[in-house]
Amino acid sequence: MIQISQEILSPLANKYIWWKTPDEALAMPERVIAQVMNIGDYSDVQLLSALVSDEVLREVLVHAEAGQFNERSWTYWHYRLGLSDVDCVPALPTRKP
To answer: Running DSSP on this structure, what letter comes out for residue 97?
Structure first.
């Protein structure tokens, strides 16, 4: 589990996990980070990148659950974080039966 100060993620949790209370969203910081990585606007992605290390972003991506990323974001973050070479991005996570 990733340990990040709640103050850092609070504004992003409120905006990107709108179906939960901020406290409920902040209980799962990985989910908040994944949601911003997947659907965040440019300024929020830049803010997130400034607030957390690339190592944290890598951890979220490597341990992503099915449905947390769309194909475009999945590919972008693999390239951006140096986890894949061109045309070598792993498949999106899928649900296990």
So the answer is: -
